[in-house]
Amino acid sequence: RLYQIPFEMPDCAGESETRTLHLVGDFSAPAEFFVTLGVFSFLYTMAALVLYLRFHSLYGENKKLPIADFCVTVCFTFFWLVAAAAWGKGLTDVKAATRPASLIAAMGVCQEEEVVCNAGTTPAMGLANISVVR
């Protein structure tokens, strides 16, 4: 599955017009995995909270229940680490696709001999970096 992320750029041949180019790639899978894991973690936490508060005696009497709870928690912890790494990789892919040098290479008008293209400013990715760290 390939997604196309459109962005506007000036058309140097007609100065006043802009063309839409598409970045080709699927950058959504890591974020979807991370969010899905977060939803399942939340649902499991709510179920465990009900078990702890409402059925406390059942939890205390049954010796297999705390071990199963521990195993599920360890699995969620491992998958959370994997999801965070996948999110970081997805962000790296988005940064590579939106790097000014990559965008200039994708513009046909910049490939002509007499044309000089300047990248301008680098996109600000500070908040995206913080989302991975947190």
From TrEMBL:
Chief place of localization: membrane
Key words, A-Z: Glycoprotein, Membrane, Transmembrane, Transmembrane helix
Family annotation (InterPro entries): Marvel (IPR008253), Synaptophysin/porin (IPR001285)
Bilayer-spanning residue ranges: 33-55, 67-87
GO cellular component terms, A-Z: synaptic vesicle membrane
Pfam families, per database record: MARVEL (PF01284)
Compartment(s): Membrane
Domain MARVEL residues, every copy: 1-134
Entry membrane topology: Multi-pass membrane protein
Membership in a protein family: Belongs to the synaptophysin/synaptobrevin family.
Protein name: SYPL2 protein
Lineage: Eukaryota, Metazoa, Chordata, Craniata, Vertebrata
Gene this protein is translated from: Sypl2
